[in-house]
Fold this sequence. Notes:
Immunoglobulin-like
Amino acid sequence: MRFFLRYWQISFCFLLFIITSKVQATHIRAGEITARRLSLTSPTYEIKLTAYFDIVNGTTAAERQDFAEFTIGNVNSTGASVVLRAPRILPIVNIGNNSTRNVYIIQYTFPGTGQYRISFEEDNRNNNVLNIGPKPTQNLNFYVSTTLNINSNLGLNQTPVLLNAPIDLAAVGQRYIHNPGAFDADGDSLSYKMFIPQRSGVNGSGINLEYDDPNLIGAPGNTETGATPATFSLNSVTGDIIWDAPMQTGYYNIAFVVEEWRDGFLIGRIVRDMQIIVEDARNDRPVINPLDDICVEAGTRISQPVTATDKNGDRLTLTSTGGVYDPTLVKPANATFTVPQQGTLGQVAGTFTWQTGCDHVRLEPYSVLFKVEDAAASGNAALFRKLVDMTTLNIRVFGPKPTNLTAVATTDPAGIAYRLNWNTYQCQIPGARIAIYRSEGCKEIPEDVCISGIPAGSGYERIGQVAINQTTYLDNQTGLKAGVSYSYRIVVEFPRPGANINEPGYLVGGGESIASEMACLEVPTIMPVITHVTVDQTSQTAGEITVRWTRPMSRAGVPAQYKLMRATGQTGTNFTTIATISTNLDPAVADTLFVDKLLNTTDNAYRYQLEYSTTQAGSLAIVDVTEPASSVRLEQGAAIPTSIRLNWSALVPWNNNGTVHRIYREDKDNPGTFNRIDDITTQGGQPFTYIDDGIDKFPADGTINVTISKETSYCYKVETLGSYNDRQIKPDNLLNFSQIICLTASDTTRPCPPVLVIDPLDCAELNKTPEIFCNQNSFTNNLSWTYPQECDQNLNAYRVYYARYEGDTPALVGTVTAPPIPLSTLFAHNGLTSFAGCYYVTAVNSFGVESAPSNIVCKDNCPMYVLPNVFTPNGDNKNDIFKPFDCPAFVQSVECKIFNRWGTQVYETKDVNINWDGKTNAGKELAAGQYYYEVSVTFESATRNPKPTIIKGWVQIVR
Length: 959
């Protein structure tokens, strides 16, 4: 008996030791999973877990963790997951803060393309984590996951690596900052999101823990500067985690996701779970000076000083991490960071140095993290806690500018052609290519070391590409025009690092070079162009417009002719000839100007076109017709209290955008004299706009301020400035005046739009009584609206607009006017053939100014088409026909098919009422029994081409 008891005690103790060892086995603090593809021919990846262990009570737990198990499964599949055991890669590294770093690596070939989740879970987080639960936290397992997009088009893609350890110290009451130091060797874009720490679920999935942001633990705290409350945030672009500021000592765990993007598509995500250790500190954190972003051309040597200080005079250590230091992530030459005197008191300085090269060109910036850490200067350091500060330097490396681009005209069977040549490009990166851009006119672009490629909106169009080793290109594309000046620029486009440039459909996307200098072909301007259409006089009957054009390139003394044509309106096409001018093209003769008189420039804009003819074989023949050009049209703008909005436009062949336009207001003390009140740089499309608040912002011709009043009329004109961007067309600056417009603030005050509703149809209720619309030929829609209380209530009318179909232009169908006062906000639209249609309402003030449209509200009919389940085609004239109950309302068309129980079609009709008599289309009587129908019904709708409604069911023939 004693022997048995002794054996039982030994066995129990051994079992207890195993259980206890398992429960206390890991004390895991933080970690993440990363991966990289190893082969272009098979989806084989190296998968790595980097895990961090608590060694407060010794290194046993970390040392016993000899392996890690990965669970791998397709995200979009419910199939079984694969479990892999990865060995630990020695040695274990003590990273400080009572923590070790263990690394586990295995290779795995995925079964095919798709999205895969790789997860890791292990028992026992470390205990006493304050912001996760349920408690105790040592009973919670640790879980992280990474999602990969397995796709051969991504080349030898690898996930970003996180270079900064996820175990950090923070101090009570002091701002804490952490950055994971994420680096993507493929140059993919990275973004960051907060994530709730998880435990493991079923089949490799994760389940959220109970979680609070660290700043919510304990009483509401303050920031380092004393503001309330304490804050906790993650910068989605930089990855900076800032806690300002901790209030309670202890352990805190947070998690975040690093997302990997390529060309706008999400291709992977890493979850990192990390721990922050908050302690009391008798010292203040050090401060590292922020660094401005750097842009360089490849080949530039960077030498960046970095400085940190500590107001307590503590001993400082300055370090740096980043992919630029690692030859496995970035091709040499690699960067270096030197600190001549580490551990100096109160201040420390270092120098970041990097000789950039062609292999470093990429789209995304390189991020380099700098970290300063303090230490006790002297004396008892028992209560001293190391504190840190960080900053990030972002470096963009662009390809160097291509050099010596030239362009010359050449002969080509296709017609007009230009040959481009340039020097051999200095960065011969496999897979890179040279893109060729062209623009009409000789156009400059901004020059800035931080602007690569061709800026959007610069007027250049991408017309072709050649391999990186090419030095020439022939532009013989269709559409090249004689007599037009063209400019060219080239840009080098680089492949993404690690990309498979031999893959079908491979696209570059790893960055661009600075654009080359412009090569401009100044083709002689052979044909005339219109340069001015300026309003000289504003009048309904005596208006005047001066039209000017350039003299064509031709030999003086040769008889020629100009024919000037005019159309009414800025887009008018009703051109009529207003002047025929014979010319010998003598530069001394003023034959490129015409003053068009007796116009109504008050109410109309005008459009001009010039026809040019020369003498050929003894008679005049048309050789060119210019592009049309309109006068500048000035209009009143929308409502702004105590101000006047002006809008203007000009449809011309030259460019008026991005230039300075001049605003003039009439001087009330000197009628007819206009004072220049402002110059504005136009941006965006037309119409251009300006708001006059009465302040004269152009003092050069005298300052005349006014107070805008509704009782006073003000007169304006504007002067546009444009250019052809062609150095051969003179003058360079084309100045043209609008007509004069006079208005008051009331003229420009538009009422607010009302808010419209329409009485709804309760289709569910109406379908209970479908006979309600039988034999009804006229319907009514009842409209109601509200007018905003905060808007001007001085209204004279509401106007109601209606369109039968959505998308059509609504027409006026009614006006609600006074009396009574206040105006009614109800309208009944009678006499409709159905309820379908769309409405909006406008408000009209006492000046006759109409508001913008209200919200558009569309109403549809109820789809009322109900079929019986039985009919008796026996000739007794009672229920002999299968047809809809009562009358089918609002039906445009019907297609009905009847099937027997074996699925064979026995009857078909397009009769709206079906009217099936129980026979086939050939007139053969069908047997009694159950039949099935499929009816496609198209109802009258507010949509012009509505989708049919499919009604399926069964019907019993009883004979």
